[in-house]
């Protein structure tokens, strides 16, 4: 199933870790998912620091000869590659999704590529993150090793002959061993909170440096919006050329032939005029469909509830539609929400093999949430240039988010969050 979606999210998307009690923190798998990365990040931090430090130093020293600049170029490319790897690891470890914030690569020209590489602020923020990663990862490693070793030692106290804590206190009696085990479990809770605190600290730093600033995010959003508008313009142009334009050309030819035969062969002229009339009606229908594709009249006149209900009624399977937006949101939000639902239902009809689906659009404050769910075969892939990719780009123009969840075997969920203020 190809729904044509390249998942687009803001450059920084953090998994919301809400407040939890001690038991919740300990049993939450997200807590311990971060531990392997926190332990091995010291290796990555030292490695990247050495690469950056030695590469940059040697490059600057060798700049007096021609070798210095190529070596510097290799170093810059290496640290950008390291930053890209870090973004992927952070998603696996902390659930912090950070998109590559780099400016668009130029199509050609060596000098253009060099300017693109060295003038991009994200390149130098990557450098700052890699430099800070070494001391931060050292702190993480020390905290986890100290707390972890203390927890294990206390919990295993009953299985050892004696356990010395500090310089004077020795755990030897059964009561002392029981208290040591209890203290060990308390230390596990402390360790769990430490893991979450370090994860939050690391994720926040990474999001600030690796995710780009507000200016870059807005620039990328505007660029995607321009691309989406250009793609829409080409689609309308193509539909006009292949549809209504050909029909109107045929009508003009029929009327021209009818005019030449009006005196000599009135009957054939009538047939040609009737044929032109039919062609005119077809052209009008084509233009009406095209206008509906640009912006449906029912959406303008009656709002999202009526427009989405009409979409659900035309679906080949039963679609449960719930729309609760209260006061009508801005026209841009209504339009994007409508096309998200329309594209999702169209893809469901083509690929999903679904038997039931639902559409839910609700407004909470200044945020409209759109969810389209179906119980089809799932397995949706992310494909650049597809229909929902364009919708995600539209959503990005108003700082919206479009996310796809479609495991193999289903179900598929397309979820969008669209702000009413931007």
How would you characterize this protein structure?
- The chain is an alpha+beta fold and 422 residues long.
- It has three domains: 34-212, no CATH class; 224-294, Single alpha-helices involved in coiled-coils or other helix-helix interfaces (Up-down Bundle), CATH 1.20.5; 298-419, Heat Shock Protein 90.
- Helix content is 65%, strand content 11%.
- It has 13 helices and nine strands.
- The strands form three sheets. A five-stranded mixed β-sheet has the order 5-6-7-9-8. Strands 1-2 form a two-stranded antiparallel sheet.
- Helix 3 (35-61) crosses helix 6 (121-155), helix 6 packs antiparallel against helix 7 (174-210) and helix 11 packs parallel to helix 12 (331-352).
- The protein is elongated, with a radius of gyration of 31 Å.
Number of strands: 9
Spatial gap, N to C terminus: 34 Å
Low-confidence stretches: 1-18
What's the structural domain tally? 3
At a glance:
65% of the residues lie in helices and 11% in strands. By secondary structure, it is α+β, with helices and mostly antiparallel strands.
Keywords:
5-stranded mixed β-sheet, 422 residues, disordered N terminus, transmembrane, nucleotide-binding, Single alpha-helices involved in coiled-coils or other helix-helix interfaces, 13 helices, Heat Shock Protein 90, alpha+beta, two-stranded antiparallel ribbon
